[in-house]
Each structure stands twice: as C-alpha cells, then as structure tokens.
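Fold it.
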Amino acid sequence: MKITVMKFGGTSVADPEKIQRAAERAISERRKGYAVVVVVSAPGEMTDELMSLAERITTKPDERELDQLVTTGEQVGISLFAMACKARGSDAVSLTGPQAGIDAVGAPGCAQIRRIRTRSVLKHLKAGRIVVVAGFQGLAPNGDTSTLGRGGSDLTAVALASALKTGRCEIFSDVKGVYTADPRIVHDARKLKRISFEEMLELAGAGAQVMQARSMEVAERFGVELHVRSAFHNPTGTWIVAQEKIMLEKAFVSSLALDKSEVRLTVVGVPDQPGVAAAVLSALAADGIPVDMIIQSAPSQAGVNDMSFMTPKAFAVRAKKALEAAAAKLRAERVDLNDQVAKVSAVGTGFRHSPKIAATMFDVLAKAKINIHMISASDLRVSCVVDLKDGESALRAIHKAYGLSKGRR
C-alpha cells in the first residue's frame, strides 16, 4: 500500500471554500492510487481565539483545562474536512490524535510524541477511506489529551509519515515554499527548490515560521523528505532533504530569518566568580524557560560582569521574575528587560571556514548605522540582535549583500 501524508495548516482550511479545495487535493491523490492520510490544523485563527476566550475567564488558565479547550479547534477542522470528502463521493473518517494512536508524554501544552500505534489508521486505509487526523495532540498516560506545542501539526504529520514509512510528507500552507527571506518583507526574495534538514532546523530556530523545529528533528532522524508547498497554487514548492542530496554548487548562505518574537534579558553587575553562570541558568531551567542566546561581558575593574539572554516574549515575565530572584541571591545590581529587539539570522553551510559570511553581515549593518547588541555563530548560522525598529531594514540590506534576490543565481 502506497501511502501519502498531507498536512494542511490553519490558513489552508480557514473557511468552507478552502476546506473544500483542500479536500479535492486529497481526493485527487486518492485517485492516483495512494492511500491518503491528512493532518489538519484548527481552521484559521481558531486556536488563538480559544486561548483568548480562556484568558477572558482567567489571566492564568489551568494548563490541563487549556489543553482540553484548544484541542477542540482541530476536531472542528477534521470533522469538516471528512464531511467535504464524503460530499464528493470519497469515503473518509476523522480521528483525533488519541483515536489515531498517537501517544504523548510530558507537560500540557508542550507534550512529546512517545509512539504512534498505526493499527487504527491502517485499518481505515485498507478499507479505502481517507483518514483525517487532528494535528497538535496526543494521548497522555493519564488518559487526557495533551497538545504538542505551537506548530504541533507539523510534528504530527512528520511523525505519522515516519510511523507509516512513507518516506515523504506534503506540507500545505499559505506560502509557496521556503524563501531566501520572508517575501512579505523582502519583495524580491527567491523561492528555494531544495534546502537541507540541518539548514531548515536552523531557520526554524532563528524564527522562520515555515516549519516547527521539533518536526524537522524527527524528519531528519527518520529520513522523511518534506515538500513545502502552497495549498492554493499548483507549482512545485521546496523540498527539504538530506544534506548529501543538495547540489554541491549551492550558495554558502541559503536563507535569512527575522525574529521579532523574543526579548533580551540582562543581569547587570553579576560577581565574576565560579558557579555564577550555573546559578543564573539553573533559575531559568527550573521554571522551564527556554534560552536562545547567552552573552557574558568581560569582567570590569570592580570584578563584575553582565549576562544577557534571549527568550520568547511569552516567557518574558516569568524569566524576569526568576532572574530577579537569582540576582538577589548573587547580589547582582539589577535585571533589565528589553522587548524592542529583533534577531536577524543568516543560515547556510561552511560558515566556520568562511569568515567572510559573518564579516559581510557586520559590514552591511555598520554601513546602515544599525547597532548590534548580541552575536552568536555556528557552522550553519550567524545571528545578530538589533533594535526592533531596524529589523526589517537590516534583513533587506543583508539579503541584497548576499546576492539572494530573484535572478541572481
């Protein structure tokens, strides 16, 4: 049995007309002789609307109950999708994450997939049905339905493709593929034909909204090639594949990302002594706060330094509170929070052996009189934190300097 896994994001099923169009795509694939599994997100902005509704009840919704609420969005999506298929003469069945055999572990809101029991899905596929699975959710050990974090429908689709051994997965959204930069900001950004798992993982970590980072880790580990394409247009999108399948003549810098969703936290006047960094980071880890970049300044003549971190805005208040408690114990001066920052990143290959990549970025920002607050670098990525007001202009200037525009390659 040849199986295709297709994932439709919220914008692809935002209204009845779009659901019907997506259903026609699934039916077309079925007519080609494939058994079809469709993973569906909550329609449109329904998840955000449900979360907003919860916050109107209480500013601190219970995490378990919040999961029970937001999972209903996907259930709306899968039911309507299955109805659309049946209305067109193609048998279909909708399954929640637990009904599809997706077992999850971990805290509500950020659970991890432990395993997928494929028996139920395969039974329906063998009966000739299109199986429509709710993304973003799984069955917790206590019998609750837990969610897999933002972008969790990507993870559901990739994990199902892995469990069903399809070797590939189609990701449909409102974008035509992966671009050299966000085309809404850089109008001459170029769509990439292919990009590696490693580069896409770095892009996701840098703030690109195309794919969830965790889904990329699973895709790479189990060799599931991904085809990111538009739900509204037919042209080929972007293939995300293993590094060895990328052409050797590929440019060093493949794509740029701009992330406006983080804040910078700085512990000022930290004593320069062993164990201080561990104490500060332990305070963040104890509260489950993710950290993206860590910069520590050289000690001053007074024997103190500053430690800066980047974390998502959703964790800003908790992070500041945790750092203030740690700062008090360490007798640091204070904790500063700056939410007017943006992170610009270049992703590609060979950065460690080509200092010109980073030098070009720094030179462009200097000529544009854009100040750099923080820098981090790896083999695949160079990131700079700049003022929020300079983020988009920095992205456009760097994109031009690297020659990533349409028609340049």
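Residues 3-174 form a domain with the Carbamate kinase fold (CATH 3.40.1160.10).
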